[in-house]
Design brief:
Distance between the termini: 98 Å
Structural class: mainly alpha
Number of helices: 8
Number of strands: 0
Order of helices and strands: HHHHHHHH
Length: 211
């Protein structure tokens, strides 16, 4: 395979890895926001309260992010000769990367097969395992380094993927805006029914002396 074709493949996987990292970051934010071990209890309670107010949205978002980052990250390592994969850029280096990251990749492939390919598991069951956030963080770091090692040879280029993680700020703004909206709505309702509609307001019970 000539250099031009290899460059086409690495260009394709630049976008693939970017989208995979962005989806993983979105998934990680939702997962981490519910853990007292990651955020302070007061903040965790806020995040959880918002997710309880909008359970359908956050459940679907969490599943969609998970599906996207699993499918996209594994696409790079599809061994089918008909597939677009990094094997076609450098088969030997790709095999070494897979062996060095075997624990996470095996778990992700198992997750993909059970959850998406064969449909014999759901997110509500314990029939599959998702790698830990620490392991996934390290996997994506390794993947970005590996990708840049390949492109350094193919076209003497490198890619900074940090923009993919900007979604975490979008997710934070989403949480804040939903929390603000719910807080305002509840305060408005409380003002209406416990104050505005009350028959015991001081202005109601104090008689007018001019009448």
């Amino acid at each position: 395979m000539n250099t031009v074709n290899k460059k086409e493949i690495t260009d394709y996987f630049r976008s693939n890895i970017f989208e995979s990292l962005a989806a993983y970051t979105g998934w990680k934010i939702i997962k981490s926001s519910k853990s007292n071990g990651i955020v302070f209890q007061e903040m965790a309670e806020r995040y959880v309260s918002i997710q309880k107010d909008y359970p359908n949205f956050f459940n679907l978002a969490e599943q969609a992010f998970l599906m996207q980052f699993v499918m996209l990250s594994l696409h790079s390592f599809d061994s089918d000769t008909r597939s677009h994969s990094l094997y076609k850029v450098d088969e030997q280096k790709t095999k070494i990367f897979i062996q060095q990251n075997k624990k996470v990749l095996d778990t992700l492939f198992d997750l993909r097969n059970k959850l998406f390919a064969h449909k014999n598991a759901t997110l509500g069951t314990s029939r599959f395992t998702i790698p830990s956030i620490n392991d996934l963080d390290q996997f994506f770091k390794n993947l970005m380094v590996f990708y840049n090692e390949l492109t350094a040879v193919i076209d003497d280029s490198s890619t900074i993927f940090s923009n993919a993680e900007e979604i975490k700020h979008d997710m934070e703004y989403l949480f804040m805006n939903l929390y603000r909206g719910e807080h305002t709505r509840k305060l408005t309702d409380d003002m209406k029914w416990s104050w505005e509609e009350s028959k015991e307001k001081v202005s109601d019970i104090t008689p007018d002396i001019t009448r």
